[in-house]
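User: quick one, fold this
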Amino acid sequence: MGFTSTHWGVYEVETKNGKIADLKPFAEDPDPSPIGPSIIDLLEDKTRIMAPAIRQSWLDGGPGTAPEKRGSDRFVTVSWDEAEAMVAGELDRVRKTHGNQAIYAGSYGWASAGRFHHAQSQIHRFLNCIGGYTKSKNTYSYAAAEVIIPHVLGGNMMELLVQQTSWKSVCQNTEMMVAFGGLPAFNSQISNGGTGAHIQREGVRDAAAAGVRFVNLSPRRSDVKNDISEDWIHVRPNTDVAIMLAMCHTLLSEGLHDQAFMDRYTTGFDRFAAYLRGDDDGTPKTAEWAAAISGMSSDDIITLTRQMAEKRTMLNVSWSLTRQQFGEQPYWAVVALAAMIGDMGKPGGGVGFGYTITNYLGNNVFKMPYAPLPQGKNNVADFIPVARVSDMLLGPGQPFDYDGVRYHYPDIDLVYWAGGNPFHHHQDLARMRLAWEKPSTVIVNDWCWNSLARHADIVLPCTTTLERTDIGMTPRDPYVISMEQAIPPVGEARHDYDIFTSLARRLGVEEAFTEGRDADEWQRWIWDNSRSAAAKIDVEMPDYESFRKTGWYKSPTPDHQRIFLSAYLDDPAANPLATPSGKIELFSQTIADFGYDDCPGHPMWMEPVEWLGAKDAGYPLHILSNQPRTKLHSQMDNGKYSQAAKVHNHEAIEINPVDANVRGLKDGDIVRVYNSRGACLCGVVVTDHVMPGVVVISTGAWYDPLDPAIKDSLCKHGNPNVLTPDIGTSKLGQGPSAHSCLGEVELYDGPPIEVTAFEPPEIITRD
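Assistant:
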């Protein structure tokens, strides 16, 4: 028995006769995720990529041949030697002909929880050795917050997330937690970098037992309802900002705000207050005004606001609220609301950015100085906001605004992806498929025939976590795991490190890439450097051999409870925020000077293009694409746990009984969900846990077009990103706006359609 670490938890691996028999929950985990064991049946599944493969049109005609056939073409298996020669040749051709900026290293960090075999780190290190690449900034998860919050609170968003008030402090001090966007407990199964012990559900339960009142402001009742009693106030999607502003107006008009806090700890309150009063636009942001926008009654807005002013209140805002048009505004507005209440920096009060969204939030741990795999220097300055990949491919040379600066999209000729899947993350898949025709060559390292692999030209099979050793290590979790190789690589799969080492050898940079170390030596290097750094903060880690023998290590936890912004509250002069004023910026002159019409100098309500309150909405239903409870993004969608939640093999759509009755729908029906961008088939789940006018389709269903040759073809499986708009949150953050989406649902009355998402493409062996 050995251990493995995944993004959804740690497991003990049981093997029999050279096969993995079971993944048993880690003994230290009080709330293990059921997702992990799904991988067992997938290791040698028909979706597994067994050998290097080349898209036939590309193989026959060379780079740029028939890009419109990506996704429908068959593949030809080749030897590793031939595949590596093609990849190295293409990289060399592009960098010499077009420059390294013509290489886009699409990658995301969820491929592995291992510290060394981390696909994103591996590909970036390799490409930096050959001159660099065009990179992406921010995340699909909360890009808008990543850009706005540094202007408002200073610092780096990821660092601020780790500093969130601990759950124990919430249990001991909070009287009321108001959750904008809910507290979806199933999201807490995951954590980037791995997690040893799931603490979110326990944190919520303990807080409820301690008397904390939970208020859920969301179109959808959270899964937390199964564990605790909560007040659910359903509100229209995309209207949280209006509610927050009305609460601020109520505090101001009734004299309930903490003026002393505003004077000492914030700047720009006078400008913000003028907006609340309607001095500039003639529209006071009253509770009645917000009620007409949000559907939340004015009485409820006023009553809840008064209660928040009276009680120690934690305001929590979900990451999902950033993934809408003007997604910067909810995070700015919630900071303004928390500041006016005056509980920021106090035990159990203030603001939380995504409790239960991932496991590490509210986890009271030391930030350990663990060593990463060095990635070297990227000599290419070009970048894009991560969600603007289609814009980049469709508009080379076109300008785009981002965080106060105007840039231009590079001209990309080669895409190399290792880790992640844009056919899961990205919006408006018909548009992305059109953009996907732009590069001459698309190269993918992956272990299964997902949509990304099927839309590539060169596919290199890589190993899974269970086929290699590694170290599960992240500063955001106290558990460090010795990840043991459980089985040999399946088929002809190779480690990403070995793939890049071979490519580096062909390109003359092997020494720069490997520094003379194999994978095991790199892991020892990471451990030894982490151990040395830990010793400097008086933390003694075991030696490498002892760690490998024991199987895991737990770093010490602080005696005191973490309180977000407590140092700033105690002494703002000695601990200023990293903002121009050193204070919380309710009005930002910096942002105002950018002159953006979609992100002004203070929090503001702006009407989205698509929302239920529009005069001419076009479609009657708001489609929410939340994170799935049965998988991590699209990973393990073909596993037993995810498959058990399907409805006749299609992704489920939750719909309120009122909306179902109007359309003659019942549980188990297959429906066509559609708008002007596309359509998909889903299986109906009728529930009063979603408000009327709103339907919910979880993300992660593998993209499965009825006709792969048609860009806007019906998705048979139920991928909601055939429906979502590909627009930036604003010129400031340029994040994804998936939740700004309207559509319609109708009963599908055609012949049965088989879901083929998990069937591999046609693969032939060359004579």
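User: anything notable?
Assistant: The first strand starts at residue 2 and ends at 6.
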